[in-house]
Amino acid sequence: MADYYQNGIITTLHNLTRRPVEEMEAELCRFSQVRPLGLVLPSLYSELDTPALPAIVEQLKAVPYLSQIIIGLDRASEDEYRHALSFFSQLPQHHRVLWNDGPRLRALDAELMERGLAPDQPGKGRNVWYCFGYALATGRVESLALHDCDILTYDRSLLARLIYPVANPNFNYEFCKGFYARLANGTLNGRVTRLLVTPLIRALKKQVPDSDYLEYLNSFRYPLAGEFSFRLDVLRDLRIPSDWGLEIGVLAEMKRNYATNRLCQVDIADAYDHKHQDLSAEDASAGLSRMSIDISKAMFRKLATQGMVFNPGVLRTIKATYYRIALDFIETYRNDALINGLDLDVHKEEAAVELFAENIIKAGNQFLDNPMETPFVPSWHRICSAMPDVFERLVAAVEADHKEFMG
């Protein structure tokens, strides 16, 4: 059973009683009469053939309170899009599959790209950005959740707990972040959060001890969780990062746009396991190596906007401080694992810390070498100003694809 301790400046909603999901869903059904609810699922086509996504869809079929499900489909040919339409047709809720690689959405993307307004690289950030635009364009819901499609331990209670804080009309939260313990197969997971983000935050706090941004980040129990929920109006001014810094970037945007008493985090699962990225120690453009660079850059960029000055000497100090703190954390996590009967490979943990320390320097040098880099995709508010009919065209493209290929 979780504790009820409140740490940091973000409200934490705990799982204290293991409340039955049916009870929560009955409340959510009532809330949905006042505030319609939706779900965004960013998916790769390849995930349709994994154990995770079919099980997720089976769980979602029993969810009674959703008015809309938006599936963003990446890396799909025409035949694969047809298959995806058939695969998701079992969902009883109103749903649409955005064929991001289809000619209609590609044409719209190309026009936005010509104006410098589209994501400049493929990936989850681009997928999520178009799904959010479609949610705004259709206006069918007032609150919506987002979660990944590779969750092996998925249960519909995860969604109920995730969306509840922004669904309950008696709450004033605009944004909610999910958290959980990352453990599976008898060991602790979540290396990037445990061994990069938390130690790096602590190291940066030694450079800027009064940073409200770092205090804010340090309040989240799992800052890299891919599960969020929002009120719909949040999405108009949200700038989505297009790289691996998506989760950290979204947190920074929420801090920029809202008071912290409008934000919260919620315990959504006792156990959570999903697809694991390789460390990719030999390839800085892939896996956890690429992720660690993008996340570090995202944090450096945000601190620079608050007046922190970066130079090679500062980067070396941050790296050295990070390295010492991260090594101490390995001992902490090892002991936590042992008391819970889990294993932890100290050699692999230290290898990850060594790689992350190197990548902190790489991230800093990239930041210094390219100060004009702007990884954020423009907000939909700006897009609508530049192209007033973009929502109508986006909906028309999705509907035309659905009508032509659904058969």
TrEMBL record:
<dbReference type="InterPro" id="IPR029044">
    <property type="entry name" value="Nucleotide-diphossugar_trans"/>
</dbReference>
<protein>
    <submittedName>
        <fullName>Glucosyl-3-phosphoglycerate synthase</fullName>
    </submittedName>
</protein>
